[in-house]
Amino acid sequence: MIDLAGHNIPAELALIAVEVGSPSNPDNDWSGKVRDYPRMGFPLYLIIDPRQKSVTLFSEPNHDRYHTRTDREFGETIHIPEPFGSDLDLSRLVPYRD
User: Fold this and answer.
1) pLDDT score, position 2
2) Termini Cα distance of the chain
3) Residue 76: Cβ within 10 Å count
4) How far apart are CA 63 and CA 59, in angstroms?
5) DSSP letters along 17-28, please?
6) Strands 7-9 and 17-20: what pairing?
7) Contacts of 10 (CB under 8 A, 6+ apart)
8) CA–CA separation, 98 and 29 (whole Å)
């Protein structure tokens, strides 16, 4: 279940999970959630990492892992597959300040 504004929604209905990497706990996004989200059935997992100025899309989940990983830098574009089927412009993303 996903809690969204006080409403519980079954995780299997989610089409994508999007995270902005935490400056204080990035390992949670890069290890725990990369492990847990395919098990929960999220078809797509997008991590925006302002520390590294990068965006990573995990797709094609199969049981306990994603089979495809696509990495792009801020300023590029990344293709988000169906059911979205569009390119996401990353040119307006800004990194964390030191």
Assistant:
1) 62
2) 36
3) 15
4) 12
5) EEEEPPSS-HHI
6) unpaired
7) 1, 2
8) 20
Helix, strand, coil percentages (3-state) for the chain, rounded to 5, are 20, 45, 40
Give CA–CA dist 59/38, Å, rounded: 9
- Give the amino acid at 27: D
CA dihedral 12, 67, 16, 39 (to 10 degrees): 30
pLDDT digits (tens, 9 = 90+) for 9-64: 777 788 999 999 888 887 888 888 999 999 988 999 999 999 999 999 999 998 88
pLDDT at 1: 61
